[in-house]
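Regression test case RT-17, inverse folding.

Input:
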C-alpha cells in the first residue's frame, strides 16, 4: 500500500500490526494476536476519521493516488466484447486515450477514456493520461461512429489536463479540444461521463460534455490544477492548498453548483483500498444513468445537454 502524506500516522499503526503478525509467523513463541487486533481497530477508526473530513488538497492527493483503478481496469471489468479502435486518421494514435466498441449490460456502446498507466513503462507510454491533439481527434472519430449507429457514448475521465508540449500546440491542441467539446454537444445519443480520478482543464471537459456526469467521491474536476492556479495567481506553486480550496474542485462542491449530477461513493480509504468495489459502484451508476436517458429522442438529448451546460453558469453565479 502506498500511503499519502496525511496517512503517515495510519501507516505507522498498520506497519506495527504487520510487524507483530510477522513475528508470530516467524515462530517467536509470543502470542501477539490481541495486540495486533487492537492496532487493527485503532487503524480502522483512524481511517474513518481521516476520510470523514478530507480537505480539498487531500482529495487531490487521493484522486491522484497511483493505486486507484484506471480506465483500462474499468473497461476490462464493466464492458464485454471490447474492440479497441486506434488512430485519428490524420497523424497518429494517442495511447493516452483509449476507446472503441463494447457492450455494457449487453447494450452496444462506444466507450472512451483517459488511461494513465500503472507502472513506469505504461505511464510513459500513456503520457500519464495527458492527451495530444490526435487523442481528441480519435475521440471525435468514435463519437461520429456512435452518432451514425445510434450507440450511447460512455466516457471515463482521468487526466491532469491536455498535454502542453510544443508538438501538441503545433498540431492544434486547443482546436482539437474545442472540436471534441462541440461534437459532444451535438450528439443525438446519450452521453454519460464518469470522473474516476482527475478531471483537469479543457482536456477533461472535452470528454465530460455529457447528459449525465458522475464523479467518484474523492475525485476532482477543475479548470486548472491547484499547482497551475497557484503559479498564476500567487507566482508560487507551494500555495496549491489555498488554490485547491478556492477552485471548489471536489465532487461535493460541484454537485452543489450543478456541474455534476451524482456522486459515486468510494470504499472507506478511497478507491485504491477497494478497487473491485469502486469499479462495481461506477458500473451501477452508469446503469442508472443509462436508464434515465434510454427513452429520450435525439433532439431531446441534444437540448438536454445544451441546457445543462447553460444552467451551470447561472448556478455558478448564484453560488
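Golden output:
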Amino acid at each position: 500500500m502506498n500511503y499519502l502524506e496525511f496517512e503517515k500516522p495510519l501507516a505507522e499503526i498498520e506497519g506495527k500490526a504487520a510487524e507483530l503478525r510477522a513475528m508470530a509467523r516467524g515462530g517467536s513463541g509470543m502470542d501477539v494476536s490481541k495486540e495486533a487486533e487492537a492496532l487493527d481497530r485503532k487503524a480502522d477508526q483512524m481511517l474513518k476519521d481521516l476520510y470523514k473530513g478530507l480537505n480539498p488538497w487531500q482529495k487531490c492527493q487521493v484522486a491522484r493516488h497511483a493505486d486507484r483503478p484506471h480506465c483500462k481496469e474499468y473497461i476490462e471489468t464493466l464492458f464485454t466484447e471490447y474492440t479497441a479502435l486506434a488512430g485519428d486518421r490524420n497523424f497518429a494514435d494517442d495511447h493516452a486515450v483509449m476507446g472503441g466498441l463494447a457492450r455494457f449490460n449487453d447494450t452496444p456502446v462506444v466507450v472512451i477514456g483517459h488511461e494513465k498507466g500503472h507502472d513506469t513503462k505504461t505511464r510513459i507510454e500513456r503520457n500519464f493520461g495527458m492527451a495530444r491533439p490526435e487523442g481528441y481527434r480519435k475521440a471525435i472519430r468514435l463519437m461520429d461512429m456512435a452518432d451514425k449507429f445510434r450507440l450511447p457514448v460512455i466516457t471515463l475521465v482521468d487526466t491532469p489536463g491536455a498535454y502542453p508540449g510544443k508538438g501538441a500546440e503545433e498540431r492544434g491542441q486547443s482546436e482539437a479540444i474545442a472540436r471534441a467539446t462541440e461534437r459532444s454537444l451535438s450528439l443525438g445519443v446519450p452521453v454519460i461521463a464518469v470522473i474516476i480520478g482527475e478531471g483537469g482543464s479543457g482536456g477533461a471537459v472535452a470528454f465530460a460534455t455529457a447528459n449525465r456526469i458522475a464523479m467518484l467521491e474523492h475525485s476532482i474536476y477543475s479548470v486548472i490544477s491547484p499547482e497551475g492556479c497557484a503559479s498564476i495567481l500567487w507566482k508560487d506553486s507551494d500555495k496549491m492548498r489555498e488554490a485547491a480550496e478556492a477552485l471548489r474542485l471536489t465532487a461535493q462542491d460541484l454537485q452543489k453548483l450543478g456541474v455534476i449530477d451524482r456522486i459515486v461513493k468510494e470504499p472507506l480509504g478511497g478507491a485504491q483500498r477497494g478497487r473491485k468495489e469502486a469499479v462495481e459502484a461506477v458500473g451501477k451508476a452508469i446503469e442508472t444513468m443509462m436508464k434515465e436517458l434510454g427513452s429520450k429522442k435525439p433532439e431531446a438529448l441534444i437540448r438536454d445537454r445544451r441546457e445543462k451546460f447553460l444552467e451551470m453558469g447561472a448556478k455558478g453565479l448564484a453560488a
